[in-house]
Amino acid sequence: MNRYSSLGLTLKKTAKLSSIIAGLLAVTLIGCSQAQPPEAKVEPSKPAQSTLVSAKQNSQTLENLQKAYNGESNAHVMYLAFADQATKEGYQDIANLFKTVARAEEIHRDNHALVIKAMGATPENNITTPQVNSTADNIDKAMGGNLSSAIKGESYERDSMYPEFIEQAKADNNSAALQTFEYALAAETQHADLFAQAKANLDSRKEASRSYYVCTISGETFDRQPEADVCPSNPNGESLEQTI
């Protein structure tokens, strides 16, 4: 089992990287509804911005950030639609899981946007209307099956996309991009595990018997309350959010 395979894993955060991402996140993150495409209404702090503006605006890491931003934007909208369908079918616990993962993807989306803006670029996304089928099929989609090119699924992000983006960020010496990608990778690993558990026990997941939690900085996701020091510190408020 590698270090990303545990549901309750926590990133080993260095003081340097944590201070950079905390600086970038010293803003109010703006949420979005299903009917309104997400927008990154953010302003990076001046110290963090001065650290990053020297990065090449045509770098591969910036391109990767834009891809990740677009993917997380679409995933946020998709999971909210999946939550509505699960509610209609009577799978309230699954609906709550989808809502929680949507919240995590929102956090990742805004983290990526902060770094993009700090590099002097504008976050760009193309929101597509998600195809919603049965809840069982939607769980399969969430795990990586039969998705549009905008959203590859949790398994792809865990196994391919974010590991590749992390290596490129290291090569480009972009510590802020590295941090936001590592935060996302940890959470996507958890999401893949949570969806696998839901798929294996779908018939028993109609009653809303679980509470879900999200780290407000990293988007790490839990189906039970984690230890107090699991989440990175949030300079603007609570580090852990109970979504359901």
Shape: globular
Number of DSSP-assigned strands: 3
The fold-level CATH name of the domain at 48-203 is: Ferritin
Rg: 17 Å
Biggest sheet, strands in spatial order?
A: 2-1-3
Looking at CATH, the homologous superfamily of the domain at 48-203 is Ferritin, core subunit, four-helix bundle
* Distance linking N and C termini: 30 Å
- Structural class, judged by helices and strands? mainly alpha
Q: What secondary-structure arrangement, pairings included, does this model have?
A:
Layout: H1 15-24, H2 46-52, H3 60-89, H4 92-118, H5 135-143, H6 154-171, H7 175-200, E1 213-215, E2 221-222, E3 240-242
Antiparallel strand pairs: 1-2, 1-3
3D structure, described in words:
The protein has 244 residues and is mainly alpha-helical. It has a domain of 156 residues: Ferritin (Up-down Bundle), CATH 1.20.1260. Strands 2-1-3 form a 3-stranded antiparallel sheet. A hairpin with a 5-residue loop joins strand 1 and strand 2.
Features:
244 residues; Ferritin; 3-stranded antiparallel beta sheet; 52% helix; globular
Task: Report a brief summary of the structure.
Helix content is 52%, strand content 3%.
